[in-house]
Write a structure and sequence with these properties.
This protein has about 130 residues and is of the alpha+beta class. The protein has one domain: TATA-Binding Protein, CATH 3.30.310.70. The protein has helices at about 15-30, 40-45, 60-70, 105, 115-130, and strands spanning about 5-10, 35-40, 55-60, 80-85, 95-100. Strand 4 (about 80-85) and strand 5 (about 95-100) form a beta hairpin.
Length: about 130
């Protein structure tokens, strides 16, 4: 999978630690529940393997997610949402997420509505606040 296959990648103007903190803060400010924050580099170190600084946020809003899953039960495979933050080889900090609207065709036969686009716009606004000053 690469960027463009429904994966949106942005470069943060902040360092890795500040971007992780901004992600945590912004998710909470917009009323998202952080179900898990996984320090994947620490998990790799725990088994003696190297990994660049990498943190995965698993989050969502049960009220919104439940409504989507009620309409399209199979969409539960895509929820909760995720944001990945990592330090790239060039030292820059990247933030990525999967576009739900890009998945619309896969779920169209099951009745996915424009709700995916609404969620995408909200996530894009959130990511913009995370990666810019």
């Amino acid at each position: 999978m690469k960027e463009g296959d429904g994966i949106i990648v942005r470069t943060s103007v902040h360092g890795f630690a500040d971007t992780v903190e901004a992600t945590r803060t912004m998710l909470r400010q917009v009323g998202q529940t952080i179900f898990a924050e996984i320090d994947q580099a620490a998990a790799a170190r725990s088994v003696g393997l190297p990994l660049r600084p990498t943190t995965l946020f698993i989050f969502g809003n049960p009220q919104v997610g439940t409504a989507v899953m009620q309409a399209v039960p199979l969409f539960a495979l895509e929820l909760p949402l995720k944001i990945l933050v990592w330090r790239d080889d060039d030292g820059s900090t990247k933030v990525a997420y999967r576009s739900l609207a890009a998945l619309r065709d896969a779920y169209a036969a099951n009745g996915l509505t424009d709700r995916a686009e609404q969620i995408d716009r909200a996530i894009a606004t959130l990511i913009e606040k995370i990666v810019t000053p």
